[in-house]
Amino acid sequence: MTQALPLTIEAHSELLDKFSRLKSVTNKLEAQFNFHTLTANWYGDEDEILIIQLFLETPVSFNICQGEMEQLLPSEVIISHFSDDVISCFNERAQQIRCIIAITETELELLILQPKLLTNFIQAKIHKVLNLIAQQQSLPSI
Description:
Blueprint lengths: L6 E5 L1 H6 L3 H18 L11 E7 L1 H12 L7 E6 L2 E6 L4 E7 L2 H9 L4 H20 L5
Parallel strand pairs: 1-2, 2-5
Antiparallel strand pairs: 3-4, 4-5
Helix pairs in contact: 2-5
């Protein structure tokens, strides 16, 4: 039996269609960031492991997801707008964070023109978001 990793990265199907390497990039970064968060002791209490789900979205799908998140009851979750293109939803009872990250139109245009930037760009964006989560959750930066 395999156990799910505490940090997962999923990309919207439209992004996967645009960037054929994106799935392998997110798989690699998922492993890398799980290792970094583990070594930073984000999962010290095995009974209350923080589950982090990161979703890479298009501008359109980001707006849809943001609207759905904002419909959730405040008693169930804490919603944080980290920036115009990053929103997170923390369910304290479930110890789960769902974070929606938009790849903006400008970023998409850049990545289409220069596909070699894809890995480093996605890595930098997710790294920044994880450090925002760390700050919010009083965890060490990675």
